[in-house]
Design brief:
The complex is a heterodimer of chains A (about 150) and B (about 550).
Chain A (H helix, E strand, L loop, with lengths): L10 E4 L3 H13 L6 E4 L2 H9 L15 E4 L8 H10 L8 E5 L4 H9 L4 E4 L4 H18 L4
Parallel strand pairs in A: 1-2, 1-3, 3-4, 4-5
Helix pairs in contact in A: 1-5, 2-3
Chain B lengths: L1 H8 L5 H16 L1 H12 L3 H9 L10 H13 L3 H17 L3 H22 L4 H61 L3 E5 L5 E4 L8 H4 L10 H17 L3 E9 L2 E14 L2 E11 L1 H64 L5 H32 L4 E4 L1 H13 L7 E5 L6 E4 H19 L5 E10 L3 E7 L32 H11 L4 E6 L3 E9 L7
Parallel strand pairs in B: 7-9
Antiparallel strand pairs in B: 1-2, 1-5, 3-4, 4-5, 6-8, 9-10, 10-12, 11-12
Helix pairs in contact in B: 2-5, 2-8, 3-7, 5-6, 6-8, 7-8, 11-12, 12-15, 13-14, 14-15
Classes of the chains: A alpha/beta (about 150), B alpha+beta (about 550).
Chain lengths: ~150, ~550
């Protein structure tokens, strides 16, 4: 499936705030990383996508993106729960997950690492910093990093 | 009195009588042994009399003993009867006291006659005159003796009866008096005193509670009056009183017309024929004490409930606050990022088409968003410093300050700033992360407010040392502040400079104060405007055994 350019997903963005999502996409575009980005609006959609259920049950084989950018505070199923289920499932446990959140709360940070997050990034309010941050994440995880 | 009595009992013997009696006395004296023997023989079959004689320690009736015979002789020969009469009176009184009946004494006289008469007849078979004289003398003498003895006997008996009656009366009076006292006690006491039999039936009660009739209680089973849940226990206790004779205590309550009354009861055995036949119970009304006790308990329970409610509310409030700060952290930042982001994109896309004012407006939006971002960050830090748990460790405040200073200067914002640490500084035991925040805030303040100077010098040192605490200081050579506003320094959102002079959120020193207070220390500032400011903070000293 990796050769099917149409369905090929390198970066899965799970974010309920459409502005954050758009800004993230813009940042990725600027760095020519936006060609294979899929944006999902909440945790349950993300799990359906990854596990090939619900709306995504017609997929032949579930897609494993190169990296998942995961927001924590989301309706229905929150980011921590998504992370827990990704790590619990054999087929998805090796996907790198980067938490991209507004929360500086220590308990979120600790809980994320307990659940096996690969990176924890607090979204900077300042635009320049935000742009730089997304660029670096995209470059590192989607281009430089290797996964099994 | 006794003389009069003796005078009254004096025998009225004429001269001839006296000679008859004298003849008898002489004969009796002569044949005393034979007569005694006959007397004994006659009385042999009278068991009552023999029993009495042995009690009196006599072998035969007193009339035949040596003393009596001697007194008889003297009385007749001198015709002076007082001694002998006295002797007879004593005998009569003795017989009365010993319980000898009159008929038994009569038996003695008869036996004497039966023993003496044949002897007389035998002694004077031919001298009939003489024999008759002795017989007559015997009768006269015995009549007299009998009269005197009977008199004393009756006198004594009457006296005994009188004495007995008197003592009976006395004891009766005594008994009545003590009964009256007891009655006064049990009728006037406020305690309830009642008696039950083996079937727990109430046989007696001193008085009853208002609204309860005595007749309804008497004969009732006292267990029926007890509350159902304690009936069995009270029954067991009362059975112990009956079986073992123990005294038992129990508490009970009864629903009375005037409300529920509580009683402290004490049950004691009442013996009859050395076994417990009844149980006496004294019940004291302890309702007022009980009520006070219950009120106290209720108050305590209410208080506990209130404390619990408050704790729950506080906990909820705390959670709410935590949720609130989480929400501030997350939700307030998101729109800021959007404003900031889109403004920047706009600037990029149409920036070259905007005039000078429009560019400034755009920049104002970006700056305000920046400031809002800092404000949120500071507020979150402020809230976090109040609630996170302290984890204390030992560290050197100087090297911590040095590190923080380097971090702050790293972006190259303060090229002309130096930090001078006056070593040695005593080690502190505190939450390192929190004290780091204190240093960040104090040093960034110092750098900020000195930024107008060509050269910034910040000094850190130990201001003073007491037994209980160390006072550190952070001194700068910056703008300083006016001391009259010093009290406002640590209030949240309070600023002593305008944003045009120095930017800031007014939260930094509030955070410092919160952290130092959490370490049981104090913080204050001193300054002379344009000469710089010194901030002091104290931390409790590490006691030697902790070092």
């Amino acid at each position: 499936m990796k050769n099917n350019r149409k369905n090929f997903v390198e970066i899965l963005l799970v974010e309920d705030n459409k502005h954050d999502a758009e800004l993230t996409m813009l940042a990725l575009e600027e760095n020519k990383l936006a060609n294979h980005v899929t944006w999902l609006r909440d945790g349950s959609e993300a799990l359906d996508f990854l596990m090939g259920k619900g709306e995504h049950s017609d997929q032949d084989t579930p897609q494993n993106p190169k990296v998942i950018l995961l927001d924590l505070k989301m309706p229905k199923i929150d980011g921590l729960e998504v992370l827990r289920r990704i790590r619990a499932e054999e087929s998805t446990r090796h996907i790198p997950v980067v938490v991209l959140t507004s929360s500086r709360e220590e308990k979120d940070l600790i809980q994320s690492y307990k659940l096996g997050v690969n990176s924890y990034i607090v979204k900077p309010v300042e635009f320049d910093k935000f742009m730089a941050c997304i660029k670096e994440i995209g470059m590192y995880w989607a281009v430089i990093n290797l996964t099994p | 009195m006794i003389h009069q009595l003796l005078e009254d009992l004096k025998p009225e013997f004429s001269v001839s009588d006296l000679s008859d009696v004298e003849a008898y006395i002489l004969f009796n004296d002569r044949f005393k042994e034979e007569i005694s023997r006959g007397l004994k023989e006659s009385l042999k079959n009278n068991p009552v009399l023999n029993q009495l004689l042995s009690k009196l320690n006599l072998s035969s009736p007193k009339m035949q003993d040596e003393q009596s015979l001697q007194l008889q002789k003297e009385a007749v020969l001198s015709n002076n009867w007082s001694s002998y009469t006295n002797h007879l009176l004593e005998q009569g009184a003795t017989y009365a006291r010993m319980g000898l009946s009159f008929s038994e004494w009569f038996d003695v006289l008869t036996a004497y006659r039966e023993s003496a008469y044949p002897l007389i007849m035998k002694e004077y078979p031919r001298d009939t005159v003489r024999a008759i004289q002795i017989l007559m003398g015997t009768d006269k003498f015995l009549d007299y003796s009998f009269k005197a003895i009977a008199h004393a006997y009756f006198m004594e008996s009457r006296k005994i009866i009188e004495e007995k009656t008197e003592s009976e009366e006395k004891s009766l009076i005594a008994k009545r008096t003590s009964e009256e006292r007891l009655r006064a006690i049990y009728e006037n006491t406020s305690d309830y005193i009642f008696m039950i039999d083996r079937n727990f039936k109430i046989l007696f009660i001193n008085h009853t509670a208002p609204g309860i009739k005595k007749k309804d209680v008497l004969g009732a089973n006292m267990l029926d009056l007890q509350p159902p849940e304690s009936r069995e226990l009270i029954k067991e206790k009362l059975e112990q009183v009956f079986e073992k004779g123990n005294t038992m205590q129990y508490e009970t309550y009864i629903h009375l017309p005037g409300g529920t009354s509580f009683f402290q009861s004490s049950a004691a055995p009442v013996y009859s024929n050395s076994r417990v036949s009844h149980v006496a119970i004294i019940s004291r009304d302890i309702t007022p004490q009980k009520k006070a006790e219950m009120e106290i308990r209720q108050l305590n329970e209410q208080l506990e409930k209130k404390v619990k409610e408050r704790t729950v509310r506080l906990k909820a409030l705390n959670e709410e606050l935590e949720g609130f700060s989480y929400s501030v952290s997350h939700d307030l930042r998101a729109p800021l990022r959007a404003i900031n982001g889109y403004t920047h994109i706009l600037q990029k896309r149409i920036g070259d088409r905007l005039d000078k004012d429009e560019t400034r407006y755009m920049q104002a939006v970006v700056d305000s968003v920046d400031k809002m971002g800092h404000l949120i960050d500071d507020l979150l830090t402020f809230s976090r410093m109040g609630k996170t748990r302290k984890s204390e460790s030992f560290f050197n405040i100087g090297s911590l300050a040095q590190k923080v200073f380097e971090e702050l200067c790293a972006p190259g914002d303060y090229p002309a700033a130096d930090l001078l640490i006056h070593e040695p500084l005593p080690p502190v035991r505190a939450d390192r992360e929190m004290i780091r925040q204190v240093m960040v805030n104090l040093l960034s303040n110092a750098l900020k407010f000195s930024s107008g100077n060509p050269h910034t010098l910040i000094e850190i040192g130990l201001a003073s040392e007491s037994e209980s605490e160390n006072v550190f200081y952070v001194k700068d050579n910056g703008a300083g502040f006016e001391m009259e506003y010093a009290h406002k320094l640590f209030d949240i959102f309070q600023r002593l400079h305008s944003d045009d002079e120095f930017e800031g959120t007014g939260v930094g020193l509030a955070i410092v104060q919160r952290i130092i207070h959490r370490h049981h220390g104090k913080v204050w500032g001193e300054s002379t405007p344009k000469e710089g400011a010194t901030f002091y903070f104290s931390l409790p000293k590490i006691s030697t055994h902790e070092k």
